[in-house]
Amino acid sequence: MIDTSDEKFQNSPGLQRWAAVENLKISAQAYNEAGSIKELEQKIATTAATRKEAKQTVRKLENRIKDLAEIIKYAEQYKANKAYHTAYKKSKNPDAYFRKHESQIILYGGARRMLEQAGIPLKGLNIDKLKAEYQELTAQKKELTTTYKNCEKELKSLNRKLENLNQYLGRTEPPNKAQEQPDRDNNPSR
After folding, report:
1. Closest Cα to residue 183, out of 40, 44, 52, 50?
2. In this structure, is residue 180 part of a structural domain?
3. Would 122 be classed as within a structural domain?
4. pTM score, two decimals?
5. Long-range contacts of 45-48 (CB under 8 A, 24+ apart)
6. How many domains does the chain have?
7. In a domain, 174, yes or no
8. Which end of the chain is least crowded, N or C, by CB within 10 Å?
9. Which domain covers residue 70, as residue numbers?
């Protein structure tokens, strides 16, 4: 909507008439696209709920992806250093073998403990399966992030239409820009 409270509009009847026609066009287009104010408000509520749900799901997926990345790291350490642990157990001189391969044996033990704490069965450990799950979760996160961003854009557009209609109908004052800003620090688009 064009703000006609400026002095240049007050001093020019032609400019006032032009702004009134433009505001009428903007309001008519918004009303035509919305159907009714009640429908527009319902669409805003539905879009906001979808946006909120997508945001919460993205957060859950991010946490699961982080945990899964850690599990994959430990699973790879476990597999890579298992041979050193087996050789250490079979060694005729375990102390000498331990000194020679201390870091690999310690890495194996730490990885094994972390996998056990995470509840991952060590028999039949399949790193490829874990990586496939990781890729699937990453794809879901990407899709939901896109949904979140689309809902955010649509919500801005719908709110602008509602504000234009309300302003034209004299139901509210011009929008407060501070309320219009979405919470940027919680945006899951990383």
Report:
1. 52
2. no
3. yes
4. 0.65
5. 47/151, 47/154, 47/155, 47/158, 48/151, 48/155
6. 1
7. no
8. C
9. 59-159
Please write the tens of the pLDDT for every residue from 82-122. 999 999 999 999 899 999 999 999 999 999 999 999 888 88
Tokens of 106: 């310690």
Residues 6+ apart with CB under 8 A from 32: none
DSSP letters, 40-102, are HHHHHHHHHHHHHHHHHHHHHHHHHHHHHHHHHHHHHHHHHHHHHHHHHHH-SSHHHHHHHTH
Token pair, residue 28, equals 């008519």
92 inside domain:
yes
For residue 109, which of 136, 78, 138 has the smallest C-alpha distance? 78
Q: Which residue has the tokens 């997926």?
A: 61
**CA proximity to 40, closest of 171, 177, 179, 189:** 171
